[in-house]
Predict the 3D structure of the following.
Amino acid sequence: MKRYFAVLLGVLTAIGGFVDIGDLVTNAQAGARFGWSLVWVVLLGVVGICVFAEMSGRIAAISHRATFDLVRERLGPRMGFLNLLGSMLVTLLTFIAEIGGVALALQLVSSVHHVLLVPFVAAAVWIVLWRARFSSIENVLGLMGLALIGFAVALWQLGPDWGELASTLSPGEKPAAEGWATYAYFGVALFGAAMTPYEVFFFSSGGVEERWTRKDLGVMRANVFVGFPLGGLLSVAIAGCATVVFLPQGIAVETLGQVGLPVAVALGKVGLAVVVLGFFAATFGAACETGLSVGYSLAQYVGYPWGKLVRPAQAAAFHTSLLGVTVLAAGVLLTAVDPIMVTEASVVFSAIALPLTYFPILVVANDPDYLGEHRNGRLANTLGTIYLVIIGVVSTAAIPLMVATGMGRG
Amino acid sequence: MKGTLRRTVVAITAAASVLATGGCAVSAPDAAGWDEQARTSLADAAGEVATARLTLETAADERTWPSYAVVVLAEAEDAAATLHDDLAKVQVPAERREVAAEVLGLLAAAATSVREARQAAVGGRYGDPALMQELDRLLQALESGAESG
């Protein structure tokens, strides 16, 4: 019974924790401009994140060591440093976007400008990172994130012509006014949002924090193969709501407030309140995950004690780095930079940095010295290799598309 | 190693110089380029007006709470004003002077109407028929302007 409960809790928190500010904004933007014609990219990204999260979870459960720790040891300090630099900068950018997202969510209920809320949000995130237990962060915020199911309910309540909506699934059904370069740019952004690197760092470091063993492989796989795809369906629902309400009216999504409007149209105040709670939980949860991921990756590379299970006094450098990145993130947001613009940049830079994250994981997951009989099988290697090719293409195309389309404005 | 480093520094400096030079230049597109910018601005402004209309309508049906509607409208107001200001800064080609005045007039009217929508929301007047009609009229004008190019 306890095991079933663990599976259920893991799956629910995986669903609730899957969506972050990048998914919220990018899916709504894509839905408003391209309908469901980019949903295939979300599905591609969800399968990709499942493939690599399973590998990194398996590495944590079998070797009891986290990703960066092994990457540096297996691929040497130079490759490890490249991996650290690329992934950490992108995760830091995502952390800034998530803190901004929390402030934007609070602005929707308070009318207080988000810049004024940033110091309080940053302080709250830091206190949670310092004081709260790892399982509390994961479970409480993950379960609260389930409030985003409101988007699926809203889509059903909006009562679209499902046949017509399904007919827009083909890339050929993109609106004629939109160019292929812009279509490809949003495809890259959606892929980056779905496969954002911090998810695997947090997942594998979390596995070490929770002391996974080979007995936990089943629960871990249930979280990944059931929770992540169901979380991906929330992304599809967000895009669907934007497709039904915004696309016919020619409204482009530029703010978090717009993301919630279709839910207000469909479900009224109660539904809107539920999804705004979901905005808060998703962004606050992701802020904690990205903040911890930055601290984890740095500590694992340098080799100092890390984690929520270690007393702060014994992991002083880890906790100091968490404080440092939180202050840095607040400082950036206090310049009044638009958090949505930071989010748009973070998902594209995620796409650029993907090879630096996922290539080393594939290498380590194939190493019998670390994983023994649990190293990658033929299926995992085939999928991993196919995804590395896709990731390479996406990463190479990201900057040219960003320049050519003026970050999707074109 | 030193040679590689020097080449990297030279390449980065050259790229930065090109970017800095481009960034400092006044935007002076040809007629086709200006048309494209005007079309995009009109379409985006139509989106902001449509957002304002939808938000007021939703608030009038009591499907949002006041602060939510005000925040969405205030952000639409900022965006609409920025669209006007950004296009106004672009050097107008001689053959587009008359059209430019019309387009900038439409964009200014959009910014004003969205501001009025935000003011109405702050005052709790969500369903003002005159304002809704004005938003509808502007929406049509902006959309036809964007389509006709």
Notes: Chain A touches chain B through 26 residues (CB under 8 Å). Residues 9 and 292 of chain A are 21 Å apart (CA to CA).
